[in-house]
# Entry
Amino acid sequence: QTKKACESKHEELTIRKDLRDEGLAGIDKAIEILTSDDARALFAKSIKPGVETFLQIGSTPALVQEDAGAPAAKAYNAIKAQVRKSHSIRLAALAVKIRTTKFGHFEDVIKSIDKMLEALTEEGADDLAKKTQCLDEYQEITKTVKDLDWKIKNNKAKIAKLEKLIELRAR
# Structure
């Protein structure tokens, strides 16, 4: 039972690791997009601290949000693709945050990404600790089984020897 439980746990841990790796790949891609030289240049050009440039009174979502060339749209699409693969609720929440964030204000998104990376790292460490514990238990069980097999073999040999001795004395 323990062996089956360990194998099952190992399988679960492998799946979680693969999903976590996919999530990390999506996060890395989003960070790459948001911190690229093009994105920084666009943000620097668009947002000048202390300078009021204009007041936007309306927008066409199809032009602003869906522009595939916009860094936010690229980041959103990269995360969205990873969400479809991994079905991760945390990645979906991050995609929503990217989607609803005003252009140029990605500090909150980057903080969320950093928190998610921290959580994924902790989960990875927890999974590794659980796997190590499982392997240690399996090794201990194997050792006990081998010891008992050895004792059984020796006891059978003793029994056979004593049965021969009884048989000799009975004659």
